[in-house]
Write a structure and sequence with these properties.
Number of strands: 10
Order of helices and strands: HEEHHHHHHHEEEHHEHHHHEEHEE
Helix content: 40-55%
Number of helices: 15
Distance between the termini: 37 Å
Length: 437
């Protein structure tokens, strides 16, 4: 059935989303928990983007928000399954590989004081380091699967040496353009992508953050040059900001030239400009954040204006990812506009939820398929974990509470409130007991 009136409360809706996640967990004989990508799948999925690692991040958010140790206990049990997978997993990246698994394990170790998870995170990063071929890991140089995401994960875990190892190849592989620099997404790729997930701006984020941490002005300068190339491609100025997906257009038969979400649109571009604003004060980056925001709120989303325009509720390329930006701006500016648009987004998420006895879940749409409604997913990118995490943060912001996440992802800048950075928050509630190990 469609969402009930009681689920119009975003906190209750998030709880229902968590209930569906927990009821869907697969149980190992050793007491571990894991998830697949979607209910019909059989294979365990340990990764950050679409599997157990992303769900662990959401469970830690719920543990912090509600002070309910059942969420912490589930996170610990899930961490055991992630740790077991690190010895055989072959991919290395942040969103699909060992770096993201290490990030989730490290978060469990810190938030729940669990040395076993911390040790497993170190083991995973050791395997990442061993997989480096001198330029990249596998085919990719971008954020989701390649060097940029690995650098950000390593930096978040305090391994600056690995972070520098990951970004140094960008000094050799940069391609000069008329206005700056760009990089290939993967080996032998013809198109050059521009945005966060697979393109130049994801690399810019890594260069800026690692450059600042290591005191490497040359890396920050590379970040500026990469950003300059993307800014020069804007087609919506002077008030807005909208850059095509890629040039030449990749797979034009199935990929739209313009998007508006985190992965390939201004909602994600703004997050990189926020990072640059913090790394390079006085660079005019806040004006670009504002221009991205202008384009987002005038794009028509979250209405589904035409087939394929806005068919996803998730964090990567849907409504939850835009809500993340709205909440960042809501926390930083305190302005009514961001709060009002966040309300619109949350209302849309509530309207598109399906709620029954098992909890709440969201299904995305593929307009080229019949039937077009897709099976709901569990994970951070396209499913419940990413949506629940943003709903809980929205609830805290609406109450005037701490605007940070329990676990801030490596590619999203913490908010600046009153001139002070607010990073990931510590657990501020007192659980009824410490989760069992």
């Amino acid at each position: 059935m469609k969402v009930a009136d009681s689920a119009q409360d975003p906190e209750r809706l998030a709880e229902a989303g968590l209930a569906w996640l927990l009821s869907s967990a697969r149980h190992g004989g050793d007491g571990t928990l894991h998830w697949t990508t979607r209910p019909s799948d059989r294979e365990p999925n340990p990764v950050l983007y679409s599997g157990t690692s992303g769900i662990v991040v959401a469970l830690l958010e719920a543990y912090r928000h509600f002070g309910d140790s059942s969420y912490g206990d589930a996170a610990l049990r899930a961490a055991r399954s992630i740790a077991a997978a690190t010895s055989d997993w072959e991919l290395h990246g942040l969103h699909f590989g060992l770096s993201g698994m290490a990030f989730a394990l490290h978060a469990v170790g810190e938030r729940l004081d669990d040395p076993a998870s911390t040790a497993a995170a170190r083991h995973a990063l050791d395997r990442v380091r061993a997989g480096f071929d001198g330029t990249r890991w596998g085919r990719y140089l971008e954020l989701l699967s390649g060097n940029a995401g690995i650098a950000l994960s390593a930096l978040a875990l305090g391994d600056q040496e690995l972070a520098l190892l990951a970004v140094e190849p960008y000094t050799r592989t940069a391609e000069p353009t008329t206005y700056g620099l760009q990089w290939e997404q993967r080996r032998e790729a013809g198109s050059r992508l521009h945005h966060v997930s697979h393109g130049t701006l994801g690399i810019v984020a890594a260069l800026a953050l690692v450059g600042r941490a290591a005191g490497r002005d040359d890396l920050v300068e590379l970040a500026r040059a990469g950003a300059a190339d993307v800014v020069a491609r804007d087609e919506a100025g002077p008030w807005g900001f909208l850059v095509p997906h890629s040039d030449p257009q990749a797979s034009p038969e199935k990929i739209e030239r313009y998007s508006f979400g985190w992965c390939h649109g201004p909602a994600g571009d703004a997050q990189v400009f926020r990072i640059l604003r913090d790394v390079d004060p006085g660079g005019g980056w806040q004006a670009l954040v504002d221009r991205c925001w202008y384009t987002v709120i005038h794009s028509g989303l979250p209405r589904r204006l035409r087939p394929g325009f806005w068919d996803n509720s998730g964090r990567c390329c849907g409504t939850a990812g835009v809500l993340a930006l709205a909440c960042d701006l809501m926390a930083e500016s305190g302005g009514a506009e961001a709060a009002e648009f966040a309300d619109v987004l949350v209302t849309d998420l509530a309207r598109r939820a399906t709620v029954d006895g098992a909890g709440a879940r969201w299904s995305n749409v593929e307009h080229r398929r019949n039937p077009s409604l897709l099976e709901p997913e569990y994970g951070w990118a396209m499913g419940n974990a990413g949506i629940v995490r943003e709903l809980l943060r929205f609830v805290r912001l609406s109450r005037g509470d701490d605007p940070g996440y329990s676990v801030a992802l490596p590619d999203q800048s913490s908010v600046t409130v009153g001139g002070m950075k607010r990073a990931a928050a510590v657990v501020t509630t007192t659980p009824d007991h410490v989760p069992a190990r």
